[in-house]
Structure prediction request, 232 residues.
Amino acid sequence: MRPLPSHAAAMLLRMDPAEPSLQPLEPATRSGRLREQLEGNLRGHERLEMPLGERRHAAVVLAIVLDAHERPCFVLTRRAPDLRRHAGQWALPGGRLDPGETPEVAALREMDEEVGLRLGPDRILGRLDDYATRSGYVITPVVAWAGAEARLVANPGEVAEIHRVPLALLDAPEVPLLRSIPESDQPVISIPLVGTHIHAPTAAILFQLREVAVWGRGTRVDHYEQPVFAWK
Prediction:
C-alpha cells in the first residue's frame, strides 16, 4: 500500500471523543464475536435479488479488517485516474463476473487483483441486496471477513488509494446524507468519509452494511439514486 499523506493518515487513525464508537461492536471485536455477529445478521436478512435483464452482473466485496488499534474497518479504494470507466471514483473492490463465476468467486478474485488481499471462500459472511446502477450493472455486494492479518497492496493499474475506514464512521449522525436532483424522483445518497463524499452505488451499499450486517435491520437501499456524473 502506498503511504498516505500525513493529513490523510491522521484523519484515518484519529478517533476523537465526539466521533461515534459503535459500542456493540467494540466488545464483540475484543472477544472475537464480531464475525459471528455480522454473519448472523446477514443470514437473517431476506435478500433482494434483481433480475439482470440487459444489464451485466458485477460483484463488490466489503472486506472487514482490523486496524492497528483493533478497530473493525472496511476496505475502500479510489480507482486509478486513467481507467476507461469511472476513473478516480471511490469504490469497493470488485468488478464484472467472468463466465461461470458466482458473485463470491468474482468478488474475492477482484479483491486479490486490486488490493492483494487473498481470502478463501470460508471467509464469506453473506450477501447484501443487489443494487442496479445507471451504467447498466447489477451489483451483488459480498461481505467477507479478513481480520487482523489483512495486508493490502494496491495494483497501480487499477487502484490509486486504499483506505481502512472504521465501521464506526458509518454510524455518524450525518449518515446518510440525502439530496434531491431535477433528473430523478429518487434521493441521491452520499456518506462523508475520508475527507470527501462517497456516492452511490458505494454509499448505498455501505449504508446497508451498517443497517443490515451491523445492526440487523431490514433496511432497503435500492431506491437511492446515484449522482448524474456516475450514470455513464
Observations:
- The two ends are 29 Å apart (CA to CA).
